[in-house]
Amino acid sequence: NNAYAVKASGTDAVNTINETAKSDKGSVTATTDNGAAYAIQATQGGTNTLGGVTSVDAEGTTGAAGIDASTNSANTVAMNGDLTAKSTGTDDANPVYAVNANNSSTNNVTGTKNITATDAYGNAYGINATKGSTNNVNKDVTETLGDMTVSSDNGAAYGITANAFSTTINKPTTNNVGGLGKVTVTSTKDTAVGINVAGVDADNLAANNVNLTGDITVKAVTSGDAYGVNADEYGSNTVEGSKNISATATVGDAYAVKASGTEAVNKINETITEVTTENEKGSVTAKTDNGAAYAIQATDSGANTLGGVTSVEATGTTGAAGIYAAADVGLL
Q1: How far apart are CA 165 and CA 205, in angstroms?
Q2: Which of 177, 158, 149 is nearest to 82 (CA)?
Q3: Which of 85, 128, 174, 198 could covalently link to 64 via disulfide, CB atoms 3.0 to 4.6 Å apart?
Q4: Measured between alpha carbons, how far is residue 200 from residues 38, 265, 326 in Å?
Q5: In b/e form, how buried is each residue of 79-97, taking b as 16+ CB within 10 angstroms?
Q6: For all residues of the chain together, what is the average pLDDT?
Q7: Mean pLDDT across the stretch 174-192?
Q8: Strands 309-315 and 282-288, how do they pair?
Q9: CA angle at residue 112 from 111 to 118, to 5 degrees?
Q10: 193-206: per-residue pLDDT in tens?
Q11: How far is residue 20's CA from residue 9's CA, in Å, rounded to a whole number?
Q12: Under a CB-based contact definition with an 8 Å cutoff, are residues 115 and 148 in contact?
């Protein structure tokens, strides 16, 4: 059976809980030993507004979501603590999301500290936006509130991802994320991506705007490709404050920073145009034990702009490039 701590489903379905709270009230927790768990969920036009939340925790066996909004729905959560989603999983398990917005939905979350998504079998997502949706998670916050950790034992793992998917919604798909220290993403047997964006066309763009203060570390442990920061067509990533960026694969290709396709753009610490000991940020590294490695790659009209870089390193077995541009591209 599934577990829901707070759920609003349907047109004009509304939950308002401690909306004006100025102090901590308590946690929101959903747990089940045989099903999916959703701590805060809004679907089909529903709306949840919560204040004074000390932590959000969802733990299931067939999927889990900490804060989830789908199909013209919205969640607003003011909190002061950690956000965790975990599924112990089965082979056909649903994904795990710490924060998820799908199909013209919105999540506004403030005060969250550590963000963790863990899945034994399915895909795991830290912050996920799809189909014209928006997540504002500590938007514009530049100081460190907590770290993001995402892992999957048998599925893919994504830290922050925005994917438009649809060609008919005709509005942007966006994540605005701040307050992060480091981002660590690990998949044991599949693809691992730190920050990922993909639009569809000029009317269905996607973007991630991220403030963090630490490293972006991505590992595909036994098989699968690894991407630190990845932008596909009509998608843009703007990342400020990041330090070392590394992508490591064992059997698969590794890309630390990649932009591929029309209007695919990565801007990482772009305002640092001259590097000094005072403003340097860190290295850009791609390594694989069995595959190709690209530290900074732009292809098919993609463009990357990076500042504050202290070193660039690519180590592979079937090919390697430190800085690579090909096929009508821009690399700045």
Answers
A1: 10
A2: 149
A3: 85
A4: 29, 14, 22
A5: bbbbbbbbbbbeeebbbbb
A6: 96
A7: 98
A8: parallel
A9: 175
A10: 999 999 999 999 99
A11: 23
A12: yes
